[in-house]
Amino acid sequence: MATGASVWILLFLTTAIYTTISGQNAGGTLPMYVDPLPKIPVVLGYYDFGGVVLPKHLIIGMYQKKWKFHRDLPETTVFVYGTSESSASFPGPVIETIQGVSTYVTWLNYLPDTHILPWDPSILVAETRMGGVPTVAHLHGGIHEAYFDGNPYAWFTQHFRELGPNWSRLTYLYSNDQHPGNLWYHDHALGLTRQNLLAGLLGPYVIRNPAVEDPLMLPSGPEFDRHLVIADRSFYSNGSIYMNATGNNPDVHPQWQPEYFGDAITVNGKAWPYLVVYRSKYRFRILNASNARYLHLQFSNGMDFTVIGSDASYLAAPIITSTIILSPAEIFDVVVDFTTTVITEIELTNDAPYPYPGGTPASLPISKVMKFVVLPGMQIDPSVVPTSLMSYPPAREQDATVTRYISLYEFMHPVTGTPVDILINGKRLEDPVTETPKTGSTEIWHIINLTGDNHPFHSHLAMFQAIQVQQLVKGQTLLTCLQEFNDVAACNVGAHVTGTVVNVPEHERTWKNVVKIEAGTMTTIIMKFNMIVDDAPYPFDATAHPGFVYHCHILDHEDNEMIRPLHLVNQ
Ligand SMILES: *[C@@H]1O[C@H](CO)[C@@H](O)[C@H](O)[C@H]1NC(C)=O
Ligand SMILES: *[C@@H]1O[C@H](CO)[C@@H](O)[C@H](O)[C@H]1NC(C)=O
Ligand SMILES: *[C@@H]1O[C@H](CO)[C@@H](O)[C@H](O)[C@H]1NC(C)=O
Ligand SMILES: *[C@@H]1O[C@H](CO)[C@@H](O)[C@H](O)[C@H]1NC(C)=O
Ligand SMILES: CC(=O)N[C@H]1CO[C@H](CO)[C@@H](O)[C@@H]1O
Ligand SMILES: [Cu+2]
Prior knowledge:
Subcellular location: Endoplasmic reticulum membrane
Low-confidence stretches: 1-25
Number of domains: 3
CATH superfamily of the largest domain: Cupredoxins -  blue copper proteins
Distance between the termini: 58 Å
Keywords: Copper, Endoplasmic reticulum, Glycoprotein, Membrane, Metal-binding, Oxidoreductase, Signal
Mean pLDDT: 90
Function: Multicopper oxidase that may play a role in the maintenance of inorganic phosphate homeostasis.
Bound molecules: 2-acetamido-2-deoxy-beta-D-glucopyranose, copper (II) ion
Strand order of the largest sheet: 15-14-13-17-22-19-20
GO cellular component, one term: endoplasmic reticulum membrane
Helix content: under 10%
Cofactor: Cu cation
Largest sheet: 7 strands, mixed
Number of strands: 34
Radius of gyration: 23 Å
Number of helices: 6
CATH topology of the largest domain: Immunoglobulin-like
């Protein structure tokens, strides 16, 4: 591999595309495809004594350190996770776990007294008396007790010097009872998720079940089963991460902006990397870890993706598609087959406008993600893509006992006409809880987008499936009514949900934890408050304090305050 790869690197360096990082913020000229795609370090969340698998306790720290995002960019100060300062990485290590085997994690904060990025005291934010960076880790897609969920109010600063009002546990227990799939961990501190993730506090987490997954014969092992963590970032020419310190409505929010878009695309912590691949099938677990950027991915040679899973679940059967739209925080698990390609340098491209879908078209730098360079010679490839993968009980409207309307709308500044805050049902995190589902139940949530943007809807604990997307008519009338009365019944929502029905894409029809809510539509989702594999009740008390949250996963929206409490109650 090493010899073959170096020969090829020499060949394609000559064809590297040179591009200027455009925009007001960044400096320098960064050539694309000069750094190899890093392999993210792996940490096992279990002991394996010759096939006997036992629970493990991990200590994972958050460190400030320097990270090299590109050959030609000076080192960048980042906040990153790792089992030690020297091994801490952007993104953090892949935590590998086994279904049914608990992983305990003590998350430790070694961050300095001040943040590396600007923050905004005018939004609801974790505020410290003694300085420090408030953090709290959340396992996205995880089904576990609320104590270990990384509640926004459960933050803590370095060495637990200060604790948020909902802090309660030094060590988190992830029981990994749920089905195998792709999760990720990231920071969730109150009003600081956009800065803490931008700084680097995120990493992949996998739950495996070899007894169920090995027979599928999918591409496996560290070479052929890989994570691609995509994140857009802007940099100053000295390497520092750039985030605008002036809000779009500074008279209300001195710093907050509605969406962060970086002008460089990084994959596994390198800007526009390349990966040398064998003529073989590869499994890529693609995570969009951007704050706000949607990705519309395709290959430059028109090659297909075979989608096998979305978020933390497999699809029932593989779906072949030539493009994937990835919202922030969304995961697609795909197989890509390089065996028959004639073209040997293949770019992974992105043409999603930002904000999505009505914003600025992707310009040259951000329209490229990474490059694959295919080695010559055939490779023996024992992997297959099976015709059926895994089935879970279906999402059925008739199982639902409660129907809720969840409306998303923003409040505009009277002068600038840009958002001041973006709320769910016109309410804030600190307003009394209104979503109190019964544990074990199924509910229908109709999510109405009355904004111009697509919002990735995410709930903690619950898994859900979109079953219908319908366009709204006279949305402006509904919006005006809701802004005044905040009551879907009084605003006669039914009269507005009469537009065209849009199909949910085949490759998103599984139990997910992020669903894209398109602008001007009502998306109907089935929310399950139990274990989706067998409809069994949660194996723990899901009603315990401090409860869960659901929110938009555009981090800038979540922070101000497109987030609401979700408290389960007993049957
Ligand atoms: C990098 O440059 C920016 C803009 O000039 C400056 O604010 C920042 O302090 C610099 N960072 C370092 C580490 O020098
Ligand atoms: C930062 O945002 C403000 C408000 O939108 C804008 O006026 C300013 O130009 C931005 N600064 C830079 C350097 O882009
Ligand atoms: C990544 O996620 C962000 C927000 O979470 C979204 O705006 C962006 O479009 C996503 N990118 C892709 C490629 O899906
Ligand atoms: C969590 O914090 C909020 C905000 O301070 C507080 O109102 C609530 O009582 C806390 N919940 C628990 C269970 O401590
Ligand atoms: C793109 C789009 O359809 N946006 C709509 C979102 O909803 C608001 C309110 O209904 C409309 O004004 C937008 O046109
Ligand atoms: Cu949003």
